[in-house]
Specification:
Blueprint lengths: L7 E4 L13 H13 L19 H14 L6 E3 L5 H13 L4 E5 L8 H14 L4 E5 L1 H4 L5 H7 L5 E6 L4 H11 L5 E4 L5 H7 L3 E4 L6 H12 L3 H17 L7 H9 L16 H15 L1
Parallel strand pairs: 1-7, 2-3, 3-4, 4-5, 5-6, 6-7
Helix pairs in contact: 1-2, 3-4, 4-6, 6-7, 8-9, 9-10, 10-12, 11-12
């Protein structure tokens, strides 16, 4: 894989479950193929949106294997992070064995390591697993930002070639872009609503929740922005703005799972402790999707 692999749209894939909460591999396969046909640049299974937090390690691997087997020409970037370095390393090695092309590694959550511990965590995995790796900054989930200095230091590791920005802090993201612009390093938006400004700053695309349900429009938006056609990109941003906001009206992936069911793509079944979308929010989401269908 090359640096260019991390340019474009990479859907953070939902995981379809049957009514008994077992993984629906047949529908997962069809979901992956549908996204590939829509023109996305890669797939990201078993991340936050894929409900990895409630999966066993064996289920992680099974989902990766299904997605890898389903697609022909797009890379599979497997979520394999953990707050336990040994566990993240084991998951990363198993993801590699399952055929993943790259890894997405969330920063350690709950234990809140200091910057030196954070850097050691990512380096330990990058030293041991010879796959391209994206570090993932989402302090709302983890309790701590990846320090800009840490991101810059990690960008110099040959296997750490990307940064997923989901802090909501454009100043922080801009500094990471600015200070890594001479490295073989991509900065991807982890928040659909901020993809356009992040690309405007020099980012290279997005790991997208919305692309699960609106892949073609998301691909068109990002493609226009990357081609510096910001008039077209802004129009698409305005079209999708209500969807971007509504998909986070409750905790992700609750709204996107409902959106997938409303569109008839797969069931909204989730594993506890996630609950179904509130009825008033489901009505709002349905209206937003109906407007996009007009």
């Amino acid at each position: 894989m090359t640096h260019d692999t991390f340019t474009g749209v990479f859907p953070a894939m939902t995981t379809p479950f049957d009514d008994d909460e077992s993984i629906d591999h047949e529908t997962l396969r069809a979901h992956a193929q549908r996204l590939e046909a829509a023109g996305v640049d890669g797939l990201v299974p078993v991340g936050t949106t894929g409900e990895s937090a409630t999966m066993t390690h064996d289920e992680h691997v099974e989902v990766i294997e299904t997605v890898v087997d389903a697609v022909d020409d797009v890379p599979v970037i497997a979520g394999s992070g953990s707050n336990n370095t040994r566990e993240a390393l084991e998951l990363s090695e198993r993801a590699e064995a399952a055929g993943a092309d790259a890894l997405l590694l969330i920063s350690p959550y709950y234990n809140i390591p200091e910057p030196d511990g954070m850097e050691h965590h990512f380096r330990a995995i990058a030293d041991a697993v010879d796959l391209p790796q994206i570090v993932y900054n989402v302090p709302g989930r983890t309790g701590r930002n990846i320090a800009v200095e840490t991101a810059v230091a990690l960008s110099r590791h040959e296997n750490i070639v990307g940064y997923k920005a989901a802090s909501g802090d454009l100043n922080r993201t801009n500094e990471v872009i600015e200070r890594t612009r001479h490295e073989n390093f991509s900065v991807l938006s982890g928040d659909d609503a901020l993809t356009l400004p992040i690309i405007g700053q020099g980012g290279t695309g997005c790991v997208s929740v919305a692309a699960n349900v609106e892949p073609e429009r998301t691909v068109a938006l990002v493609g226009a922005a990357l081609e510096n056609d910001f008039d077209r990109a802004r129009e698409l941003q305005y079209e999708l703005g209500d969807l971007f906001r509504t998909l986070f009206i409750e905790t992700n992936p609750i709204p996107i799972k409902e959106a997938m069911e409303i569109r008839g793509i797969h069931s909204s079944t989730m594993r506890s402790p996630l609950n179904p979308l509130q009825p008033e929010h489901r009505e709002q989401l349905g209206s937003v999707l109906a407007e996009l269908d007009e």
